[in-house]
TrEMBL record:
This is EamA domain-containing protein. It comes from the Bacteria. Keywords: Membrane, Transmembrane, Transmembrane helix. Pfam families: EamA (PF00892). It comes from Pseudidiomarina aquimaris. Residues 19-159 form the EamA domain. GO terms for cellular component: membrane.
Amino acid sequence: MSRNLMSANLPFVSKFSITLLALYAFAGNSVLCRWALAEFAMNPAQFTLLRLVSGAGALAVIVWITQQKAPLSDTKTHFLRASLLSSPLLLMGILYSNLHWQPVLLALPSGVVTSAIGYALWFKVLPHLRVTSAAVGQLSVPLIAALGGFLFVGEALSLRNNNKTS
């Protein structure tokens, strides 16, 4: 079936809305991570593992409810594998730092909402998008994340990289 015939199956408003929600979810992942690391000084390994485990769990539920196969199921498998591989980091992080509830409340939605639901939405709409539209959408995620960082984390908007390396 040609790409144009597949695009006709999903109305433009639905395509646009689902695409926008998925891209906001992907950008939200970055914002939640930066917020947890900056505001609460959360260990990056802890954040990553909590995000992976919660995302894997959410993807497992989504796949089970919708009975979908690849690519959503493949993504769930990758999240689970990454969770298992990074589990020692979480254990070390728990043993050698104080894990507070506030950053955990940022890490869990990062996995469940921004990652798992973001991927579910993206894989639903992707077959209905032209390659160029999908590419431009994905390339807009850092811009959306920068705006989110400005609005929710208090980061400055700048065209310059202010990190100085010596």
